[in-house]
Every structure is written in C-alpha cells, then in structure tokens.
Amino acid sequence: MTRSSHSTGLLFAIGSASLYGVNIVFARMASFVGASGSAIVVYRVLLMLALVAIVAVAARRSLAMAREERGKMLMLGISTAFVGICYLSSVAFIPVTVAVVVFYTFPILIVLASPFVEKTPLTPALIGVVVIATLGVCLVVGPAFSGLDWRGLALAFGASVATAIQFFIAARCNKTGVVAKVFWIHLIVLPTSLLISLVTGQLAPPSILALAPFAVAMTIGGYIAGFVLQFLALGRITAVAAGIIYCTEPVVASLASALILSEALSPVQIAGGALVLAAIITNVLLEQRSLKDAPLVPIAD
Question: If you count Cβ atoms within 10 Å of the first and of the last residue's Cβ in the chain, which end, N or C, has fewer?
C-alpha cells in the first residue's frame, strides 16, 4: 500500500463520514414537510438498485450470490432496512443531535454482545468504555428528556440495535462480491421498507418528494455518495483507521444541525456528546493496541 493510496483512502473515508453526517440533517428537514423516513428509504433504494445494475453491466460484474450465504444476506438486508428507516424516522420526533448520540451507541452494543456472539472476553477496559458512553447518552438526553418524544428515542435506539446486528452478520458474509452484495442487500431492503411503510401508513407517492426537493435530494444523494466513498475507502485503509474516522460522523451531524437547523445544545449535552465520542474512539484505540498489523479490509470482486 503506497502512501498516496493511504492518503486517498483517508480522504474518501472523511468524505463518506461527512456525507452520512449531513444526510441525517436534511432528512429532518424533509420530515418537516411530511416526507417520512420510510418513504425516503424506498425511493433511495430504487435509485441505488438502478445505479448498481448500471455499474454491474458496464463493469461486467457478476450479481450472483453465494449459495451458502443466502440466509445471511436476507438478515443483512432486513437489518439494513431497519437501520435506514428507524434512523431517518427518528428525526421527525427528536433533534438530530439527540438522534445521532443515541444511534451511536451501537459500537457499545457490539462490545457488550461480543462475549456472546464472538466469544471474546469482556475486559475491564471495555466495561469502562461502556460506562462512559452510557453516561454520555444520559447527559445528552437527560436535560431535554421532558421535551423529547419517546418515539424518536425508541427509533434511534432501534437503529442502533439493527446496526449492531448488521455488523455481526456482515462479518460472516464475505463470499459474495461487493457489487452483488450491494445489489441484493438493497433488493431485500425494498420490499421490507415497502411493508413497513404500508403497516405504518407512511407509504407516499413520489410526489411527496417534491415538497422538499432540495432536502430530499441531499438526503438521497448523501447516502448514495457516502456509500460509494465508504467502499472506495475500505480498500485503501485499515479497518481500525476507518473506524476512527467514522467517529467524525456524529460530530459533523451535530455541527450541521446547529448551522442548518439552528438546534442549540446546552453545555451539559455538549459534554455528554463528547463523552460518547471519546468512548467510541477509546474503544477503537483499544482494538488497535491489540493488533500489531491490522490487515486491509478485503473487497471481493
């Protein structure tokens, strides 16, 4: 790996994390005019499928799914659907800053579940990280709890749980190519999101997107561009480096919500967000210490 390639990967990762962070802010803007999170997920999945199909044809990439991974891919697609729908829907009820902090408890959930899923020991250091992160979430949510809608908190935490499940399944799904994986995941996300939209009564015609064209375009475009940059980055930098960089996403989201939506945070809430961010970074650094030479994340053809 050359130095220039590594630097390019860092830039791609920073760009991806920043796009994801800004994406949730515009999702909240779209929710103000009635464009629900589930509706946005449906239409962005349709666009993603079209783009992946074009890339597969142009690059002559196979869309075949490994037979032994069909069950895993199904679960991966369903968990991905819940991540998008729950996260984007949460900001219709609570501020972006709160949604981001609650959502970013998923690394802590992964740490807590690892002894049961991965059979890895839960060390005192990791327990300390969990305690710090939990304290941070309490500080962020606590001062404004009386003014928060429980539905937004539940949706944000649901997205966090779904993301933890997604990570565990993705680690066991490595025989299907990247292009095929993206295609099948989104193909599974489509009917899942349609079903959830129908059950919740939030399925809207495409005309709903015209109510906030700029916000919707930024939400969908930010997701697609961030997704592409994410895979471009993961072939150039280590998993540990990527994990550290993606901790910038909640920071970008908080700054963007303050600038674009004028969402103010109290000093206590700022301190709580800093604790969560510090806990996540500490967790990644602990993993880095345990690995002498972390390998590059492989990208299948």
Answer: C
